[in-house]
Amino acid sequence: MADITRDVLIVGAGAAGTTAANELRKAGLSVVVLEARDRVGGRLWTDVIDGAMLEIGGQWVSPDQDALIETIDELGLETFSRYREGDSVYVGPDGALHRFTGEMFPVSAETEKVIAEITERLDAMVAEIDPDRPYAHPKAAEWDSVTWDAWLREQSDDDEAVRNLAFATGSAMLTKPTHAFSLLQSLLMAASAGSYSNLVDADFILDKRVVGGLQQVPQLLAERLGDDVLLNQPVRTLEWGEHGVTATTDALTVRARYAILAHAPVLYDRISFVPSLPRRQHQMHQHLSMGFVIKVHAVYDRPFWREQGLSGTAFSPYELVHEAYDNTNHADERGTLVGFVSDQNADDVFELSAEERKERILESLSHYYGPEAKNPVVYYESDWGTEEWTRGAYAASFDMGGLHRYGKDLRASVGPIHFACSDLAGAGYQHVDGAIRMGRLAAAQILDADRSAVADELREPALDGA
Length: 466
Hints:
Blueprint: E1 2-11, H1 15-26, E2 31-34, E3 46-49, E4 52-55, E5 60-61, H2 66-74, E6 79-81, E7 87-91, E8 97-100, H3 109-127, H4 140-143, H5 148-155, H6 159-166, H7 170-174, H8 183-191, H9 196-200, H10 202-205, E9 208-210, H11 216-225, E10 229-230, E11 237-241, E12 244-248, E13 252-261, E14 272-274, H12 279-286, E15 288-290, E16 293-300, H13 304-307, E17 310-315, E18 323-326, E19 335-342, H14 343-349, H15 354-369, E20 378-383, E21 396-398, H16 402-406, E22 417-419, H17 432-464
Parallel strand pairs: 1-2, 1-13, 2-10, 7-17, 11-14, 13-22
Antiparallel strand pairs: 3-4, 5-9, 6-9, 7-8, 11-12, 12-13, 15-21, 16-19, 16-20, 17-18, 18-19
Helix pairs in contact: 1-11, 1-17, 2-17, 3-6, 3-8, 5-6
């Protein structure tokens, strides 16, 4: 078994881990990144499926994601805007298709008024939330004890309004049923994007893509690290103490002064810690779980919906595919639609055969775009729930009451062990932007700790001679 010694061990070669490693390298510390998968990128994955380039994982860049935008620019990558010319479509409770422009769904005037009023109320509440400290709000305990669905239904008995308001943070972002997480967790999701209005504005939150795919961000960061990124190296044991850490994989022993766990918190229990992590972490990690969503890619010989004057943007809380977008690649003659099947609906369709599931999903897409949507030349389902080193999508969130109870300890280091991933972010929560922010934060924490340790060492002789 080979031995490696570094200043810092990083577990996970996604955006958080590769960012942290580069920040530490710049500051003069030596690093090694151990990645369990056979590829760099984590929940970012761009691949060619049946001749079509698909972004199997995360892909969008919104204008408030400063950390991601800075990184994209610094790496020399180009972006392009999501296609959005023409009408969007909405399917109402009666199954009827409605074309519309703008942000508001084409609902009755009464329902529109309710949505606008509750949105204004939510924006005011979100404005009071510090995304880095949602647990510190005076009403945090109260808001963490009521479900997102229950709170919305307290505001109105207009079911269509409630469903449309609920799915923005439920099916669309946290990818859990709206009765399974709290109002506070929903407010954090909105605060991480700047406001609830931002979160429900597809033109904002799904603004641009990277030419060639977003996975290039961690790939290019990893290239700078060269041989210090090692794939197919799941960490089995992590011994830790006052003098640092020792990690073992099936092939390596790595000794370092510090460690960063830069992967989803649902995977912490895949590592045997010696000694065990403190009680607080054991409890906290049991109250974090992944959501679940199927990202559906349907590629056609051309973007036929544009011929109908459609932007490709589609929504309905009543459809199996609750939202879909034009996802055509830059300068591609073919057209691609991407749709999402979330939470309970995703569970249900996986009870079906692959052929039945495909038929149901394409049928739902046809309700938005017409019968031609049933005949893609390439069809692919991103199923992160079966991915061993992810186990869900898009990120982990707390169960009821967990955010208020454990939020303040979410990013707290344990001795020499630090934590960094998009699941732990405030701004950019669940997004690549948040992963980069957390990678930078963990690196800064280690550099601060290292400076303090050096200062202590320098002081000791003076004290001895006093």
